[in-house]
Amino acid sequence: MDIAGGDERGTTERVLTLLGLLQQRRVWSGPELADRLGVTSRTVRRDVERLRTLGYQVRAGQGVGGGYQLGPGQDLPPLLFDDEEAIATAVSLLAGAGGAVAGADDAALRALTKLDRVLPTRLRHEVRALSGAVESFGGGRTPVDPETLMTLARACRDEVEAGFDYPSGDVRRRRRVEPYRLVASDRRWYLLAYDLDRDDWRSFRVDRITEVAARTWRFHPRPAPDAATYVQEGVASRVYPHRARFLVHAPAEIVRAQIPASAAVVQQRDNGHCEVLSGGAELDFVLVHVLLLGHSFEVLDPPELVTRCHILAQRLLTAGKTMSPPPAEDS
């Protein structure tokens, strides 16, 4: 008779314990597992079948050196962590969300919000303490408070309203929002949210957000713009007094490699052309930056930028009149 008993809860706990054992060591013999679980070898075989039904690939080897081992499956089933593993995973994900690994920030934050859903309160305090000891060197993304990032991520996940203080000119004002998505650029984290007081979509720099608090009031998500595109267009052009569009005679992948994502939006037109949207305090600066890309281009908007092209071209011609151009090199 099995010591673990036959009720459903006892069976579930035993199967989870079996899964934990299989994750700890490469191979277990049937008698070893039976002894650890306090059951018969027959019950071990039944519990192994239960794990297989849940999507775990449990292999059974015969003969000397054989036994049960957990193999890779076609899908990713749930994983079991002890306290130390959960803390280490959460801290590593916080570092990834901070941009320590290129391209991993969004995925790290999504994984962190899933882990946060089941993380016991006692472990959250340790994660918070350890995350304060994780730093990076060199350039990269502007640091943000991990607790602020997590609170906003939870609010996006749970679809609950949030409030926070945000600078407006020389003062900080309280903002009430329906948070939608967190977006990571090459330099910063942004929150895309529906501003309830301004009745419109807004993007907020997370490093400028303070005193954030999620409410219990749930909202029904509104039709939303594409989060990454909206934030990128805002960072690259909407925040500036002047905006400009160009048709650049080069493939989009080449131009994207030349311009930071926070400086311009590059959209593919065809195999040999792309459209560049950017902004700046002065149109001349935007024009010069596009000129320095080294590709032929045309001004699409605004019309007054065409006049600036002629003025700057005349200045360059005038500046070059004092010297003869060097002879062209033989090709």
UniProtKB/TrEMBL annotation:
Q: Which UniProt keywords apply?
A: DNA-binding, Transcription, Transcription regulation
Taxonomy, superkingdom: Bacteria
Q: Which organism is it from?
A: Nocardia aurea
| Record's keyword annotation contains Plastid | no
Q: Which residues form the HTH deoR-type domain?
A: 11-66
Give a Pfam family name: HTH_11
The leader peptide range reads none
What protein name does the entry list?
A: YafY family protein
Keyword Manganese assigned = no
